Amino acid sequence: MPVPLCSIPRIARARRRSAHRAAWLALGVLVACAASRPPPARADGAENDATPPSAFAEWWDGDALTGTWLAVRTAADEHGVAFEGSVTSDLSRVLDGGLEERGAGRALFDLALRVDLERLGGLEGVTAFADFQALVGDNGSEDVGDIQGYSSIDARELAQLSELWLEVVLFEDRLRIKVGKVDANTEFGFAENAAGFLQSSMGMSPTTPMPTYPDPASSVTVFLSPVSWAYAGVGVYDGASYRGVHTGSCGPRTALTGHVELFTIGEAGMRWGEDGMGRLALGGWYLDGGFDVTSANGAFEHHHGTRGAYAVLDQRLWKELDEPGDPQGLVAFGMWGWTEPSTSPIEAHLGGGLAWRGPIAGRDEDELGVGASWVSAGDALDPPTPRDHEVAVEIYYAAPLAGWLVVQPDLQWITSPLGDPTARDAWVGTVRVTLNL
């Protein structure tokens, strides 16, 4: 029997509430399991040190929820075949302001296969990679009206082969070539010390329309590292996502048709200090092809090509232990971006933050972060708004509860949202749960 149209909104709201209750229940079960985790071995070297860990303890402290697959996974990894997977779920609520004070839930499933063809078949320096992604749930920014995106996994619902590429490393790691469908933000414009933040603009400047999640694209990328502390790279990508094509769901056909936009990006960078504790990257990009944009006065304007530039700085400020490779301590990042205002809803971006790894004694893998991101409105902002900027401030605490489970409460304050002229300043709370499969 058909469902009356007037009932569909009520059914959707009921399903949404049920999904939120189920998600919070699942989170409670995970936390309860974490609370029952076996105590660590005694520091005095007594009887606990002589007792081998139980099967449960090995699984709980392991890297993957699904374990080693009866040693099949371990054997495959030894031969160069690595299975990688994760589930990232965000449960959010607009606590005050925005467009609507309600909850949102979504989950990103990520399954990848990485094959080291040197270990598997003797092809020196060759790696193949495939990544399938599926996103289900709500887009939280629709309740806030922000333009930056307060959750890095927010997007349309999707199920796609997001990446499929082949990489060759030559001349003792001095030359690296990657061909295929690639997420450009894994190669260009990323801040290493911003990896823990949920806010999308912390990890990549929103002024750069690079083909990244949810729309990676076909590409050719070349990186040269003549010395260990410096590098330069260039990438040419299918730029069709700029005109609304979902390249993440496509193969190379949009880059091979007669109507082609190419996104070309270049970056040069350097590192310094022990363990590469400091890093500076400078980049520029150009998007060719013709496209139409809506100007601030509502008129359609045709443009041919647009360009921009960015800079990224990563720096370790303090190290807790004087041991090579130890991640504990305080790190910082800064980011700047600019693009032509006539072709973009965002003209300029400035962001930065701090992350403290191991802030509590005995919790060496926890992380506390605080950061802020500012963007100014471009002439192509649609719908137009009298506001000229948006600011997002974020604080989070990430706590690994098992080797494969991280729970991360997050709070953001978003002022002058640019995505909707009727949106109010908003407080948004999120709990992110990450499972490594």
Order of helices and strands: HHHHEEHEHEEHEEHEEEEEEEEE
Tally of DSSP helical segments: 8
Question: Unreliable segments (pLDDT under 50, ≥5 consecutive)?
Answer: 1-15, 31-48
CATH class: Mainly Beta
Give the CATH superfamily: Carbohydrate-selective porin OprB
Mean pLDDT: 87
Largest sheet properties? 16 strands, antiparallel, barrel
Please specify the SSE layout and strand pairing.
Layout: H1 8-35, H2 47-50, H3 55-61, H4 72-78, E1 81-98, E2 103-116, H5 117-121, E3 126-137, H6 141-144, E4 158-170, E5 175-182, H7 200-203, E6 217-227, E7 230-238, H8 253-256, E8 262-272, E9 278-294, E10 300-319, E11 329-339, E12 346-357, E13 367-377, E14 389-402, E15 405-415, E16 424-436
Report on the architecture of this protein.
The structure is a single chain. The chain is mostly beta strands and 437 residues long. The protein has a single domain, classed as Carbohydrate-selective porin OprB (Porin), CATH 2.40.160.180. 14% of the residues lie in helices and 47% in strands. It has 8 helices and 16 strands. A 16-stranded antiparallel barrel has the order 1-2-3-4-5-6-7-8-9-10-11-12-13-14-15-16. A hairpin with a 4-residue loop joins β1 and β2. The two termini are 40 Å apart. The N terminus is likely disordered.
